[in-house]
DNA sequence: ACACTGACTGAAACCGGTTTCAATTTTGCG
DNA sequence: CGCAAAATTGAAACCGGTTTCAGTCAGTGT
């Protein structure tokens, strides 16, 4: 190790006890300014860095949080959603002087196993988990492990669980309402039943249709799994139904839908209008650029870290945090609104 | 904590000393099979899990490795390369019972700062770093920190540094040779000068041209930065030069190039053939699917973890590891070979 | 049977901090 | 100025393991 200087050595150099150095280190009160300054000078001069491991053993705090992403192997780093989320959490954690460790669990079985290991390791102050597979089977493990945790996305059984979610229902509602206002009549959707986000988006879509007195037709609902391929297949299945607009529940699936439409010779938005969900970078880069529902992943990550920090500090005392972040419609070419405006 | 059982408790229950339990735990010799079995039974019955922190403090090993990705903020989670690499390292680490912590440094300045912190924390057994910004300015810090480390990609000053790299030169060479063999005469490239991988790919491209007696024309060389946008701009700049084929140094840039070509009304591969590099998922999903040079990111990640583990264990004794992994050409539609075959 | 190995085992030191608690100052006030 | 209360400080215990070292015990060779 590069650092042979210990708290003991600093204490000697500053003519105080380890205890006092520790107090200075942790910004505790009850140290005379004079003494505090002297200790800090020694720390500065020696370049002393406390050994986190020892600190952790003694204080039962590691300043390490785990981000557990459990989803299909293919999925995780295919859909830009997870990388974006990972980056957001990593950055927010760093800003709070927390280290983020990343776990990617590929199969549901693996989740159980590695999660037990993660918890047992006792290394982490807390965990942030993504609510895929609806996340339910993890919850008993987490509860038993008595480890602070926060979900990103609403797990299936969300009772008494802290989570940060996007307002997916509102997302579906905004998207469908927007299409309705633009005058489309046969509005289909490519939904997903993988997790609560998918359910909510679908339910928002249905609500918008219902509120506008439009029939909800099962033939206009395709079910995908967030993959590009499933968007492609979903669109192919919908084509014979002659929809004039489609709400696709994720940008990635929308890219697949775009391909299906191009292959079928349908123009977007002239023949079929599209609104998708997420507003990840590919949405803006698609051809045509996608009108989409923006969920602010950075904020989601930041809130998750923040909330986890609170859980860690306050424990049971913290009132239940179930935070739903707003979403907004981002207007681009794929919904046809811009064209209509231009010709109007 | 869920686990109130300590090594002490196990020792009492098994009627032995902490020392013996520790020996059993670590598979040390000098424990009678009989005793060993008894201890193991108690461990099994109690579900005892050693506290890693304590173990680490005593043994100076954390079983945590850091993956440090330093690149432009936008870049890191935009190009699927990094997510793929992250996943590969995370998985390989997990297989070796190592925890991977992820650090994303956005600016070069930030690298220096956070790297010092990371090293000083003393939390990590070793680091895997990506060689962006050519990675040079990190090396002195790492050396001073006396922390085991391995690069993925070849840093600018690679003397005496362990690294795992793809055979990028061969990648550029294979791509260009392939296009030459298909009969293209005006073969352009969209290269990158960001890191050694970019340099090498360009140099392989040049070598192939030279070996086939073709002139190397600077007007046919555009410089990008691995982003989709830079591929788009690069292609636009090249179009007036009328290339009949382009080697694009990354899949992501190739997607940008595709868009530029589509906008210009040029068909791929009929008017302009494309070969790209990396073979990430989007390459297969592009329209048309991209012929590309496959680098096996999973293997790269696995070798990096493996090598780092060796460095950690053997230290100076380990001979210099500079591993170059082979690449291969993946044939798809964008190069025109399939069409030519069909019509032949 | 006897000294002599070498395999087992446990006591205690140690890793480098934090935290408790009692001792020692200081400070505040009457 | 004197005394109780509050603020400082340091000694020692503790976190939960690993490792050193010396002692114990069984197995050998003679």
What does this structure look like?
The structure is a homodimer of 344-residue chains. Chain A is of the alpha/beta class. Chain A folds into three domains: 7-59, 434 Repressor (Amino-terminal Domain); 64-167 and 297-326, Response regulator (Rossmann fold); 168-295 and 329-343, Rossmann fold, CATH 3.40.50. Helices cover 47% and strands 17% of the residues of chain A. Chain A is built from 15 helices and twelve strands. In chain A, helix 10 (196-211) links the parallel strand 6 (187-192) and strand 7. In chain A, helix 1 (7-14) crosses helix 2, helix 1 (7-14) crosses helix 3 and helix 11 (228-238) crosses helix 12 (251-263). Chain A is elongated, with a radius of gyration of 25 Å. Chain A starts with 6 loop residues before the first helix and ends with a helix. Chains A and B meet through helix 4, helix 6, strand 2, helix 7 and helix 12 of A and helix 4, helix 6, strand 2, helix 7 and helix 12 of B. Chain B binds a DNA duplex (30 and 30 nucleotides) through helix 1, helix 2 and helix 4.
